[in-house]
Design goal:
By secondary structure, this protein is mainly β. It has no helices and 26 strands. The chain has a single domain (4-164), classed as UDP N-Acetylglucosamine Acyltransferase, domain 1 (3 Solenoid), CATH 2.160.10. Strands 1-4-7-10-13-16-19-21-22 form a nine-stranded mixed β-sheet, with no helix packed on it.
Length: 199
């Protein structure tokens, strides 16, 4: 199955688009970007040069994914979410000259398997989002996020744990939690580490 690309999308000839993926209208995918199989890039989304995206990812409308971001399989990027790449942004150098690509070092956002970034959330690079973590809409993430963490606020803080289904886990005592949707169980080893016991 080949990729479906809207006639109004701008996809560089050197971008690699996996089988079954869809690029919707007015989206831009720049040179060297790699998208896996069965991905969806929504209307007006921007995928920067050399960004790496795994299989079965969803990049919603108007999301901005700047290089050198790396997204594992099954990642969700919500509408108008932003993955930044400049730790100390400036348009000009101290001497007033316009900055060029050689005047700064791009840093990226890494998102692990199954994680989800809510609408209008901002991930400030360099930062790593753990597997199956959930970033609430409008949150600003400026530090690494543990696996299964539910993060909210500005700056984002962990407010709960979530399971693979994305639903907040329920405590069952003795630092253990259960997913109300799947029945999977988890154990909290520390305030920033949750271990999956069963799926």
């Amino acid at each position: 199955m080949s990729a479906k690309i809207s006639p109004t999308a701008s996809v560089d000839a050197s971008a690699v688009i996996g089988d079954g993926s869809s690029i919707w209208g007015d989206a831009q995918v720049r040179g060297g970007a790699k998208l896996g199989k069965n991905c969806i890039v929504g209307t007006g989304a921007y995928i920067d040069a050399n960004v790496e995206i795994g299989d079965n990812c969803k990049i919603q409308n108007l999301a901005l994914v700047y290089h050198p971001a790396k997204l594992a399989n099954g990642v969700f990027i919500g509408p108008a979410a932003v993955l930044t790449n400049d730790q100390y942004p400036r348009a000009i150098n101290p001497d007033g000259s316009l900055k060029s690509a050689s005047d700064w070092d791009a840093v990226g956002v890494t998102i692990k398997e199954g994680a989800a970034i809510g609408a209008r959330a901002v991930c400030v690079a360099p930062v790593t989002i753990g597997a199956w973590a959930l970033i609430a809409a409008g949150a600003v993430v400026n530090k690494d996020v543990p696996d299964f963490a539910l993060m909210a606020g500005v700056p984002a803080k962990r407010i709960r744990w979530v399971g693979r289904a994305g639903v907040p886990l329920e405590s069952i005592g003795d630092n253990r939690f259960r997913c109300p949707t799947t029945g999977a169980t988890y154990k909290e080893e520390s305030s920033d580490k949750l271990i999956e016991e069963s799926k």
